[in-house]
Amino acid sequence: MLSAPVSVQVPTQIVIFGASGDLTGRKLIPAIVEAACRRAFLAPVQVIGVDLRPLSSEAWRTELQPKIAASQLRIWDELAPNVHYHSIGDSSPEAFEHLRSHLDELAGPEHGVVGRLFHLALKPALFAATIESLANAGMLQDDPLRIEAWRRVVIEKPFGSDLATAQWLNLMLRRHLREEQIYRIDHYLGKETVQNILAFRFENAIFEPIWSSQNVESVEISVCETLGMASGRGKYYDGAGALRDMVQNHLMQLLCLVAMEPPTSLDAEAVRTEKVKVLKALEAFADPQDVWRNVVRGQYQAAGGDCGYLEEDGVSADSTTESYVAIRARIHNWRWAGVPFFLRTGKRLHKRYSEIVVRFRVPPADLFSGPTPADICRLRPNTLVFRIQPDEGIRLTFIVKQPGLGHIMRQATLGFDYKDLFPGDSPDPYERLLLDAVAGQATLFIRGDEAEAAWRFADSIRVGWNADGAPPPVPYASGTGGPGAADELFRGCEGVWGRGE
Ligand code: BG6
Q: Which of 15, 262, 298, 382 is the most buried (most CB within 10 A)?
């Protein structure tokens, strides 16, 4: 998606708030070590973990060591002297002043020309206070005359819990930072196959002419998971639900990449402006009835040895939080008017897979003895499937004549598998995104107005769910495809949800 491989060319400090948290150990540190293994750091890089509890740098490194893959231990040993821990104690203004002097001291005489990335791997409730404290300690100002001394902040999701909180957070961030300094993360944008959607669309001219309501009948975006509330996430999830946890961010991003107009370039402003246009054209649901007709929410029940959602740790016994949501959405613009976008995500489904299915219209007249009218409700001769995970690849289906004297038609598939053409692992999304943030490339991050536009849509669903008379979440058995009611979103003869086959 971006023109050149990203590398770090100026001395940099990566300052991670939430050093003891799960994300730091599971994702951030391994991503930094992986980047070091790829020799992406062409200039000195220091990693400073910040958290409340007192701990020595040595003790932090010892805690991190088990997270490092055996094959990377040699590089970890090289990096380790540059990995430090800083206790922020009571988070007082003095504690932040102290952090500032510690960072300057670690940078040595070069401290005037070191770039600093503050990665807030924190609970969302702490974002605002942390930014405020960093600003008050004078740590967020950069110097336009010394571009190496940049200051940037990475904010983890969830960015707010609705439109109002996202707007408030944006206002607060902009009091202390320019938009170019703010990197709102969505790890889906760091996935290779997600980036490839744009490459596929805009580097192959053959698809663009058919990429509109004239030829596309519907688009499906499914992100299905088999996991339930793993690693003690029940409490967080019960306050969020699938709509906030997955739809507002990951599914909205996938939708934008499929539906956006060609940007004038791949720079951050051009790409994000086009994405915002899609989100603005995405019709918010007009009233509760509109939501009830077009959105199905579900909650998994015990089955096959797995407990039900309500029995999960941290989940309240009478919770109505949705572990599944399916949406029939509309984009009101010239390209997509009249084309339903089917969005679906859920926990404890039959299979873990994420894919985008573009279903093209059936031919206007059937000259051969093609599929029966019953089949045509299911079968679309031409579909283009972007498999995002696992078994990453792209598939195009079409109809061929089965050899023989009759006229029997069969569906055939042209396929491309990433692993065949590109054996070996792709960078983890966090490695890609961290390096981009350090390099000042914001294309794969969410702009403030983009987050707000996505919340506007998600909130319109929540209003319907909170209205009097709203149907409760539909139960579905764990390990199945989700509630059958979601099939009705296809309104009879417009196809069916994919099965990830
Ligand atoms: C996270 C959600 O953002 O994405 C999780 O909070 C979800 O609930 C995860 O499981 C899915 O990410 P991936 O990369 O495993 O598809």
A: 298
Examine the pLDDT at 378 and tell me if it is beyond 90. no
Nearest CA to ligand 1 atom 4: 246
Distance of alpha carbon 260 from alpha carbon 201, whole angstroms: 10
Cβ of residue 34 lying under 6 Å from some atom of ligand 1: no
CA of residue 188 to ligand 1 center, whole Å: 9
Number of domains into which the chain is organized = 2
CA of 177 to the centre of ligand 1 (A): 28
Residue 8 pLDDT greater than 80, yes or no: no
Q: Whose CA is nearest to atom 15 of ligand 1?
A: 225
Give the model confidence (pLDDT) of 64-86 as tens digits. Answer: 999 999 999 999 999 999 999 99
The residues with which 326 forms a beta bridge, in sequence order, are 296, 344
Helix axes 268-281, 252-259, angle to 10 degrees: 100
**Does residue 87 fall inside a structural domain?**
yes
The whole-number average pLDDT for the span 443-471 is: 98
> Whole-structure pTM over 0.85, yes or no?
yes
Question: What is the distance between the alpha carbons of residues 192 and 419, in angstroms, rounded to a whole number?
Answer: 12
Whether residues 329 and 457 share a domain: the answer is yes
Where residue 102 sits, what CATH number does that domain have? 3.40.50.720
Token pair listed for 304:
């096959």
The amino acid that residue 500 corresponds to is G
* 371 lies in some domain: no
Question: Closest residue (by CA) to atom 5 of ligand 1?
Answer: 245
pLDDT band at 499 (very low <50, low <70, confident <90, very high): confident
**Residue from 22, 123, 225 to probe ligand 1 pocket by mutation (most atoms less than 8 Å from CB):** 225
User: Burial, 34: exposed, middle or buried (Cβ in 10 Å; 0-12, 13-18, 19+)?
Assistant: buried
**If DSSP states are collapsed to H, E and C, what string results for 129-151?**
HHHHHHHHCCCCCCCCCCCCCCE
Domain span at 141: 12-156
- pLDDT (tens digit per residue) in 260-304: 999 999 999 999 999 999 999 999 999 999 999 999 999 999 999
Q: What is the mean pLDDT of the chain?
A: 92
480: domain CATH number is 3.30.360.10
* SS3 label, residue 17: strand
Q: 297 with 285: CB under 8 angstroms? A: no
Q: What is the pLDDT of residue 377?
A: 58
Element (H, E) at 387: strand 383-389
The answer, yes or no, to whether residue 111 has pLDDT greater than 70, is no
Tell me which residues are annotated as active site.
250
**pLDDT-above-70 percentage for the chain:** 95
Q: How far apart are CA 464 and CA 487, in angstroms?
A: 20
CB of residue 245 inside a 6 A radius of ligand 1:
yes
Ligand 1, atom 13: closest residue by C-alpha? 188
Q: What is the pLDDT of residues 36-49, one digit of tens each?
A: 998 888 788 999 99
